[in-house]
Amino acid sequence: MLIEARGLAKTYRLGQVDVQALRGVDVDVGAGEYIAITGPSGSGKSTLMHILGCLDTPSTGSYRLDGEDVGSLSGKRLAHVRNRKVGFVFQTFNLMPRLTVEENVALPLKYRGGVPRGERRARALALLERLGLGDRIGHRPDELSGGERQRVAIARALVGTPAILMADEPTGNLDSRAGAEVLATFAELHAAGHTIVLVTHDPGVAGRAQRVIQMSDGRVV
Amino acid sequence: MNLLESLLTGLDEARRHWGQTVLSLLGLVLGTGSIVTVLALFGGQTAITEQFLSEVGGRGTIIVYDRESSARPRARELASKRLTFRDAQYLRDRATTLTAVSPGWSEELPYRAGDVSFDGEVVGTVPDYMVINDITPMIGRYLSDLDVRHQARVAVLGWKYADSLFGRAGDALGQIVSLGGKSYTVVGVLEREEFYFAAWEDNALEYRNERAYIPISTAIAQHSATDRLDFLTLKARPSAGGAAAQAQVKSLLYARHGVEDFDIRMSGQGAGDDSGQFLLLFNFIFLVVGIVSLVTGGIVIANILLASVVERVREFGTRMALGATAGAIFAQVLAEVLVVTIMGGLLGLGLGAALTGVVAHFMQMPAVVSPFIATVSLTTALTVGLVAGLFPALRASRLAPVEALRYA
Fold first, then answer.
1. Intervals of chain A under pLDDT 70
2. Which one of A94, A107, A156 has the shortest CB-CB distance to B314?
3. B355, B367 contact by CB (below 8 A)
4. Distance, in angstroms, between B5 CA and closest chain A CA?
5. Residues of chain A with C-beta less than 8 angstroms from the C-beta of B328
6. What ipTM does the predicted assembly reach?
7. Measuring CA to CA, which residue among B248, B402, B368, B321 is closest to residue A165?
């Protein structure tokens, strides 16, 4: 199993009130799976995704990612795991506005260290070609359409050859045509063997996945 | 990502946030510029004082003045013989910290030669006085030991008086001048002495051009009823130092007089006092302006960085999601600060140098931005920048990725 999570729980403290975002969740994801986590807002789907993506740590429970127990890692080790094992795609793209498309895509390799500049560039260009953005490499994000921006973000998520690609509402900020393009890209990546976990509240998007994890009130239903 | 790359990222960010960078620069530039200017002008002033000191005989010249009697003198003061020729002899024998002792007598006397006459200062002294005060004859000679021993009626004239009395300073040699009604042969005329602390100041050495020197023995025999002196000019042994010599002279004289009826001054003290005070005020104002600007600059930098951190928290969150460590984020923010600070410091140095040049030109003051001044001001700017930038950098690097990403 690529992902083995047992009894994940997360409690936030909001002022005087404890909010239980996750109340004991077990998740298994195998290599090559395409999974959608869905549910109404406040169901804990984003929290689950943040924990699976090592952006957040569970209050209790165990989590093994690609054979490594990441529940107890230090901040620096977690950064390392995020860099190598996880590729993130955000709803709002989160591209660096002052960097070019190519620089944006190569950024994770820069944080990895030890990858020569030429190789970083070559890998970024290869991915951009593959995602149909070969003519956009020198542009800034604000010169691109929403669909193009999200595909740049996908290229950035993939450049480090992560074990798993995670997407948080990847079509949430896109019109239906651009959304369909992005979903088509995910389908292609899945067909090429990538493991994908995406979070969505849109049943149409969730329906494209192989398997759906339905969340409600901090639990899997 | 290694340190170098984090730094390069920060550098790049500083370039891409150009507007912000320029704003943070201003405070630093002004602050550093003011500090450079102050230090340069201060250095120039110190240099000119030093120059004046060497002009009047160098450091280590001590002058003992006879103090005015008190309005109601006590018994001890009345018992004192005051400053006398014997004091000079005593110091010459006992004061181990001195290399030269020159007794001095001074009085305002009428000068006359032909039909030119005026009142002016006449100084009675010994050959040592010339050495101590670095006096050089333009023509003729200075007083000799023989003159002193024989109470010779000879005078050495300052340049201006020689010029006034005889039409041309060069014509005075061998002429007779009447000082206080007694005739003296002019055996020498001194070089014209000039020194200006600033363009608007009068010649600080003019008093040396307006006097005549006669042997101390002659002065006392011809013009004085007592052997009382007006001053002693002393030279400290370089190895002993001026302060030590001053202390020794004070205790020796006090022991002899039983009362402090004299004042001791070091060379340089009092010389060009007015201009010194003016410059001090000038420097003080500049220094205050400099410090205020630097502090303001620091606050501006911290403020802008804090603001830009808030603005860019989500960007940092994204960078963390892509694998940036806390250290990498810290290094990036710090690098931005460093770039701004170093650039601000260097530009400030340039501004300071330009300002110094302008001030030095218009006020006719010697002022140079030395490597020392450059180092000090750059270090100050760097320190302010780092302190101001450290807090925002720490704050940015401590954020948890998920918090940073959610930051609204």
1. none
2. A94
3. no
4. 8
5. 111
6. 0.93
7. B321
